[in-house]
Design brief:
- By secondary structure, this protein is an all-alpha fold.
- It has a domain of 83 residues.
Length: 119
């Protein structure tokens, strides 16, 4: 069994919406750098639990990586190998990207090169 899913009704959905609304002020009041650090910490935890970059993994690390990969495979229907070599490492990269991107939310970047022709 991968998960247990409750037989929710409209009242359960409303409770979830209310909980999210209640949590939002505290989250949004945090400085952007603090939110970025929290998002980056998720990547740190995944890397610590499944250090897929290390050339020599301990038996415990291999076991954890296998657990993560099997769960991801069951969730997404991909092979365990793909989950190990693509999905889990990519999740770390995604968390790292968004932890940095949030720092520049609303900032407009204009890309320009002197080699580009005038428009």
């Amino acid at each position: 069994m991968n998960a247990r899913v409750p037989n929710s009704d409209a009242a359960d959905v409303q409770k979830a919406v209310e909980a999210a609304k209640a949590a939002f002020p505290a989250w949004s009041a945090k400085p952007v750098a603090e939110r970025a650090a929290i998002i980056n910490r998720i990547a740190d935890i995944i890397e610590r639990v499944c250090p897929f970059r290390s050339a020599t993994l301990s038996s415990n690390a291999l076991q954890r990586l296998d657990e993560f990969a099997k769960a991801e495979s069951q969730d997404q229907g991909k092979t365990v190998g793909t989950a190990k070599t693509v999905d889990i490492p990519r999740s770390v990269k995604n968390f790292r990207f968004f932890s940095g991107a949030v720092l520049y939310h609303g900032v407009r970047f204009v890309l320009w090169s002197p080699e580009w022709p005038d428009r």
